[in-house]
Amino acid sequence: GLQQGSLAKALTKRKLKVGGDMVEKDLSLVAAGDNRDALAKAIYSKLFDRLIVQINRALAEARNIYSPRATAHVIGIVDIFGFEIFEKNSLEQLCINFANEKLQALFTKTVFAETMRAYSEEGIDAADISYTDNGALIQTLEAPNTGLLAILSEECVVPKGSDEGFTEKVMAQHGKGGIIVRMKGVGPKDGFGINHFAGLVNYGTRAWLDKNKDPLNGDLVVLMQFSDNELLKELFTEPADVAPAAGDRKKFKSTKFKGVTDTFSAQLTDLVGTLDKCDLHFVRCFKSNDQKKPDLVEDAVITRQLNTSGVLDALRVARTGFPDRMPFDEFCGNFLVVPGLGTKAELAGKAPKDRVLALLQKLGVPGQKFRCGKARVFFASGMLEGLRTRRLEMQAKVAVAIQAAGRGHIARKAARQLRRVREEALQAMLSAAAQEDVEALRAAIADARAAGVHRYAAGEASVAGAEERVAALVAELRARREAEGALEKAIGAADIAELEVALQRAAGCKSDRALLERGERRLATLKEEEKRRKEEEARLAEIKRKNVAAAAEAEKKVAEERRKREAEMASRDAALVKQQTEAKLRQKEELIKQQSRIQEEAETADAESIRRSVAEEEEATQRAIEEEEVLRKQVLQELEADGVRFRSGTEDVLEYAVYLGMDLREDVGLLWIADQALQADDPE
Fold it and tell me: Are 42 and 216 in contact (CB under 8 A)?
């Protein structure tokens, strides 16, 4: 998009103004290569900047940020390196330190100058407050014609300009002002020192002119502006440029020299101007060490940064001045509530300033610790915080009183609730003590203890009485169970005296009524039988008295009948034994037959299996006989242990019960039937 040959000419030649004429100078191969590389870098840089602008514009339009109202509210963050002080410092360090000087001036203006202006507006004398201002240093660096940066740009365009010449001109212009000083250890033409806000920095001036010269030839810039490529033309056209009128012939124009420092200074001026229009907040960041190691803090490094960052100077001004301020009405409203200072009515008739002065006097604030302006009162460092502490202490006392009242109310309410719970638990325990339910009484005692009934004297006595009642009920229950057990045993026996004693004991222990009635019926039966026995004995005695012979005959008859019964019983026993023996013989014969049959079948079957079966059957039969004998002995022992007596022999009764088909395990209570049958004339 360029005229043929124009790009090669611009890369290999440079136009210079000599007198009033423009002459062309051929460039060396190295210089031409630098021109080529500079053009490529410029195109890349401008494309990158344009891309950033396009992205921001797209995001802004999507969020409607570029509306007239939205542009008034912007939050920006400026992050910049701190002062750089190395063993060898050059033009790059000067630019960075110059930027820090400008920001330090802004910080001074914002923090200190604004404070002094507030003092002046309020009519407060602040003559004893001073602060460090770096305005002279900034003027030394950026003055239009005589500043260090202006001298550098001028030396870049003069014929035969050199780094040594630049250094000499700087020292000649500013060497006696105390800001720029000679550099120790080097020649007077090799560098100089600058007393920055952060301290003295020595700069070597070798190759400063080459670093300051814009590597991009101005002729190349003009050539790009007249390109047919619209994008390339837009990249190299400044917004303030005016396009040529219609019909005018495009001409190549050389621009005035503009060094790197000029561009940097202009951009820095724009940045400071933007920041000056904003509400600023400053954040000072410190490196813990110079080695960039974690968990390492070097005191010397921190101290150096504190001294060079202006923080200590800000603290000094804050301590010597009056950093805390408060409007009159707000001050009176906050501190009039402190006890002993009077009431609002007492100060209502005074002017706001007089009211504040009277209040400060009552608060005991020294006169050198505050200043009263036209609408605000200013306090020395720490004084307002002390007043607020006193106010908080007063509020804390009031809060403690309120908390004490609230806690007292809560405690009294809890005490009433606890008293009610204790009364309910006590009444429940007393009601349970009047009954005979041991478990219910124990539960009531546990509830009473949980409610704290035992913690006062009357309640402790009630709990002790209830526990004694539990012990008495347990003893009574134990005695009742023993009495009922004795009564059960007496009911099973035939001893009238023992039964009467057991009945009396059980009745005294309030035993079960059904059991008592059963015992009484058993006692009546035994007494009736005893009565009949005595009547029979009396009748026999009467008969014996009237007729001894008849009595003898009767006795003989009775004895005969007894012998018959005994003979019959013996016969029955013999028959029973015979039957059992015959049964055992039959079983044995059956076993023999089975063995014979097994032996016969063993010829065709597994003899070993048959013999095992026969042995198991014999063992089962023998085990059944043994178990029957064991059961009979066990039942006999139980009957003897329980004191059960039969009219016939106990073994005879058991034998006859087995004969009748009774199960000695389950039918023990029916053995009396076998006993009665043996007493009959014909047991069958």
Answer: yes
CA dist., res. 335 & res. 388, Å (int): 8
Strands, E assignment, 185-281: 191-196, 199-204
CA dihedral 144, 147, 150, 155 (to 10 degrees): 140
Q: What is the pLDDT of residues 225-278, one digit of tens each?
A: 888 888 888 888 876 544 444 444 444 444 566 778 888 899 899 989 988 888
Report the percent of the chain where pLDDT is more than 70: 79
Phi, psi for residue 551 in degrees, rounded to 5: -65, -40
Between helices 548-601 and 607-642, what is the axis angle to 10°? 160
What is the SS3 assignment for 388-452? HHHHHHHHHHHHHHHHHHHHHHHHHHHHHHHHHHHHHHHHHHHHHHCCCCHHHHHHHHHHHHHCC
- 232 vs 46: CA distance, rounded Å: 9
Render pLDDT for 358-411 as a digit per residue (tens, 0 to 9). Answer: 888 888 888 888 888 888 888 887 888 888 888 888 888 888 999 999 999 999
Average pLDDT along the chain: 79
C-alpha distance from residue 41 to each of 37, 91, 201, 215, 398 (Å): 6, 21, 32, 10, 73
Q: What is the pTM of this model?
A: 0.47
Compute the distance between CA of residue 409 and CA of residue 402 in angstroms, rounded to an integer.
11
Residue 279 · residue 76 · CB < 8 Å:
no
- How would you class 54 by CB atoms within 10 Å of its CB: exposed for 0-12, middle for 13-18, buried for 19 or more? exposed
CA distance 664 to 680: 22
Q: How many CB atoms lie within 10 A of CB 411?
A: 10
Distance CA 25, CA 215 (A): 16
**Inter-residue contact 314 to 140 (CB < 8 Å):** no
DSSP for 97-165, written as a single string:
HHHHHHHHHHHHIIIIIHHHHHHHHHT---TT------HHHHHHHH-TTTSHHHHHHHHHHSTT--HHH
Long-range contact list for 43-51, CB < 8 A, 24+ apart?
43/232, 43/235, 46/235, 46/236, 47/235, 50/234, 50/235
Question: How does pLDDT run across 348-362, given as a tens digit for each residue?
Answer: 678 888 888 888 888
> How many Cα atoms are found within 13 Å in the side-chain-facing hemisphere of 390?
17
- Phi and psi angles of residue 6, each rounded to the nearest 5 degrees, phi first: -70, -40
Burial class (CB in 10 A: 0-12, 13-18, 19+), 143: middle
* DSSP annotation string for 509-521: TT--HHHHHHHHH
Q: Which residues of 415-441 are buried (b: 16+ CB within 10 A; e: fewer)?
A: eeeeeebbeebbebbeebbeeeebeeb
- Give the C-alpha separation, 384 to 362, whole Å: 15
Looking at the DSSP assignment, which residues form a beta bridge with residue 182? 192
The single residue listed with the structure tokens 């012939």 is 249
